[in-house]
Amino acid sequence: MTDNMLVVSSSPHMRSNESTQTIMRDVIIALLPATFFAVYNFGSRALIVTILAILGAVASEWLFQKATGRKNTVTDLSAALTGLFVALNIPYTVPFWIPVIGSAFAIIVVKQIFGGLGQNFMNPALAARAFLVLSFPRIMSIWSFDSVTSATPLDILKAGGRNMPSLQDAFLGNIGGSLGEVSAAALLIGAAYLLIRKVITWRIPFVYIGTTIAVIAAIQFFNGNGFDINYLSYHVFTGGLILGAFFMATDYASSPVTPKGQIIFAIGAGIVTAVIRLYSGMPEGVSYAILFMNLWVPIIERFTIPKAFGEGDSHGKK
Question: Where is the PTM FMN phosphoryl threonine found along the chain (predicted)?
Answer without folding.
Answer: 152
